[in-house]
């Protein structure tokens, strides 16, 4: 997949989702002197992705100059990769014309997607691959209230366990002990088996008994 980023238009916000890129992607950054800086985390994500990176800096000023750069690059890509997906990352609605033109050409089987960020472009593909599913899952809207209730309950459990196991021989195992019960509602049997698996029979049985006496359930 090709990602053409209009940095003069979207700046750092358009790079959101760059962590989803991989070695099969090509990331193409278009920028001017006034938009040549990116947050360090985005540059690190690019380096870690293994994607192919291209950069084009605007040579001369002029209204919509970068738009022409991007439109021409779309044409070049289609000549060599007519079946691939090209994402134009920009808030500029004018790129819809590029998409409409490509869709009308029978020789192009690929798609042109217009989106405001890399993540939204990936979601817009509606592919069934793993990264699209992850991006869709991470961006879905959720009710704050049940999340806050679960978060408060987890904090309550963690505080209770810290008080109970502090100063005991199991204090160093506290992160694992917390993970057995925090954030979920397993049965006593599941807790018992998980304790044995993590800590061995002797310690596991003892930790399980203490958990039952913690009054956290």
Residue share in helix: 40-55%
N-to-C terminal Cα separation, in Å? Answer: 49 Å
Q: Uncertain spans, ≥5 residues at pLDDT below 50?
A: none
Helix count, DSSP H or I runs of 4 or more residues: 9
Radius of gyration: 25 Å
**If you average the pLDDT, what whole number results?**
90
In total, the number of strands is 5
For the largest sheet, list the strands in their spatial order: 3-2-1-4-5
- Overall SS class: alpha/beta
Order of secondary-structure elements: EHEHEHEHEHHHHH
Shape: elongated
Indicate the proportion of strand residues. Answer: 5-15%
Let me know the largest β-sheet: 5 strands, parallel
Describe the fold and architecture.
This protein has 217 residues and is of the alpha/beta class. The protein contains nine helices and five strands. It has helices spanning 7-10, 40-49, 65-80, 96-104, 118-125, 130-139, 144-165, 174-181, 188-212; strands at 2-6, 26-31, 52-57, 85-89, 111-115. It has a five-stranded parallel sheet, with helices on both faces. The mean pLDDT is 90. Strand 2 (26-31), helix 2 and strand 3 form a beta-alpha-beta unit.
Ordered list of secondary-structure elements with their pairings:
Elements (H helix, E strand, L loop, with lengths): L1 E5 H4 L15 E6 L8 H10 L2 E6 L7 H16 L4 E5 L6 H9 L6 E5 L2 H8 L4 H10 L4 H22 L8 H8 L6 H25 L5
Parallel strand pairs: 1-2, 1-4, 2-3, 4-5
């Amino acid at each position: 997949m090709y990602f053409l980023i209009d940095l003069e238009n979207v700046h750092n916000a358009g790079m959101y989702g760059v962590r989803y890129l991989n070695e099969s992607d090509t990331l193409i950054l278009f920028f001017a002197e006034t938009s040549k800086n990116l947050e360090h985390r985005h540059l690190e994500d690019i380096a870690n992705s293994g994607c192919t990176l291209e950069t084009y800096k605007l040579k001369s000023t002029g209204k919509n100059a970068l738009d022409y750069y991007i439109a021409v690059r779309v044409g070049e890509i289609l000549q060599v990769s007519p079946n691939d997906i090209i994402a134009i990352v920009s808030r500029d609605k004018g790129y819809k014309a590029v998409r409409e033109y490509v869709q009308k050409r029978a020789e192009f089987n690929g798609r042109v997607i217009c989106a405001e960020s890399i993540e939204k472009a990936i979601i817009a593909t509606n592919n069934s691959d793993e990264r699209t599913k992850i991006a869709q899952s991470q961006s879905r809207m959720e009710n704050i209230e049940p999340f806050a209730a679960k978060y408060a309950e987890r904090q309550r459990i963690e505080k209770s366990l810290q008080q109970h196991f502090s100063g005991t021989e199991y204090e160093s195992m506290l992160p694992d002990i917390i993970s057995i019960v925090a954030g979920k509602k397993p049965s006593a049997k599941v807790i018992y088996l998980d304790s044995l698996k993590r800590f061995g029979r002797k310690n596991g049985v003892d930790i399980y008994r203490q958990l039952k006496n913690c009054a956290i359930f």
